[in-house]
Design brief:
20 strands, 10 helices, single chain, ten-stranded mixed sheet, globular, alpha/beta, Lyase, Ornithine Decarboxylase, Chain A, domain 1, TIM Barrel
Length: 451
Amino acid sequence: MPVEGERGAGVTQRLAVVRERVQELGDQVLDARTKGLFLNPGESLRAAEVAERKWNVLKGDLDLPLMLLKERELEHNIKVMADYCREHGVDLAPHGKTTMAPQLFARQLEAGAWGITAATAWQVRLMRSFGVPAILMANELVDPVAIAWILDELDAARGGEGAPFEFLCYVDSLAGIEIIEGVVSERASRTPLPVLVELGYDNGRSGVRSVPDALTVARRAAQSPAVSLRGVSAFEGLVPADSLEERLAAVQVYMDDLHRLVREVAEAGLCEGERIIVTSGGSSYFDIVTDTVGPAAFDVPVQTILRSGCYVTHDVEMYEETSFLGGRPGVGKGLLAQSLEVWATVWSRPRPDLAIVGIGKRDVPYDYRLPVPLRTSRPGVDGWQEVEGAFEVLALNDQHAFVRLPPESDLAVGDWLVSGISHPCGAFDKWAYLPVVDDSYTVVDGVFTFF
C-alpha cells in the first residue's frame, strides 16, 4: 500500500478535512429519537459526551433491541485488512455502502486506505461532505446533473478552491461515453472525467460482456477528450455458481479474463497516467483478485485497488464462510473477528421449544441468512450461557424473532439473547446510531450512519 512519500507529501493534509468534519459529529444531539439509547423525552446530550455517561449494556443501561459495535474487534479488523494490502502491494478503497459511517471511513483512511468506494452519486456527495479525498464510484455515471457536479468538484480541487479530490467511475458502453461528452461540451471547463472500463460476465449486472467488446469501449474512451481512461474494473463477488468450489473456479476464470483485458489495454497504450488502474475484490475473494491482477502479475506498472467493505465488522456466516481472512474452508486465515452484535429481550415462551424475542426485520439483516444466536444472559446475573448451534432463528416479523431452542432450556422471559448477523451490508441501514463498547460492554463512543 503506498505510503505518504509515494504520493508526495500531503497524506496528512488530505485527511485533515476528514478529521475535522468527522469531529463535528460530536455536536450531533442524541435524544429520545435515537434508537437504542435510553433517553427520556426532553432529555438530550451531545454525541461527544456519550462516554461520560458510562452506560453499560450488561447493567441494562440501554434500550433493547440494540445493535452495537465492539471496539477491540473493530480496530483489529481494520488493521488486519490494512496489513494484508500493504503486504501484497495493493490499495484499498473500502466499499462505503456497507456502513455509510463517516467515522469508520476516517478510521479506514487513517489506517492507509487509498480512498472509499461509493455505489451512487449521492453516496459520493455524502463522502465529499466529510472531505473524503479519493472516491471510486463502482458504477456507471450517466446522470448529467451528477456528472456536472463531479466535474465541478474536480475543477475546484485542481484549482485549490476545494479539498483534495481523486475520482474514478465506470463506463461499459459507447452510449455512456456519449452522455459524458454531452455534459462536458456544455461546460466552460474541459475537465475530462476519469473512467474505468467495466468488464462484466453473462447473467451479471453491468459491465461489458466480453474482453473484445471491453476493448472496443476502451478504444472509444481513449479517443474522447471528455473522458480520461485510467484502467479497468470488475466485480467477482456475485459470479453465479452452485457451490463454493464452483464459484472459486468461476471467479478465477473471470479474473483471468480481467488480466487479459489489462494486458491488451496496456499493449494498445490506451490508458492515461503512470499506472493502469485495475479494481475488483469484494469481501470474499479478494485473494484471487490479488494473485491474478495484483501488481506482481504484470510486467507493466499497475495499481490494483480492492473494494472490500464488510471486513470492517465481519459476520458469523456469509463472510466467515467465504473470506480468505475469515474461515473459508481450506485456506481461511481466521483472522477477522465479528464486531457486530445484536442484543434483544425474550418476550415470550409460548412453547417449551419456542421463544419470541424482540428483534425483527426492522433491526437486523435477513437477505442472506437470519441472525445466529450466540449466547444468553440474565439481567443481574454474571456470566453467559453459550447457545450457538443449539438455538436457531426460524423466522422474523417486523419486530419479532421466532427462536427454536431445546425444550429443557432454562431461558426465561426477560432474559437477553445475543446474536451475530450475516451480511453487514444489510445491518447498518437499520440503525442511525450504533454504540461502540469496550470489552466490559461499557459505551465508549458511537457511530452515526447516513442512508
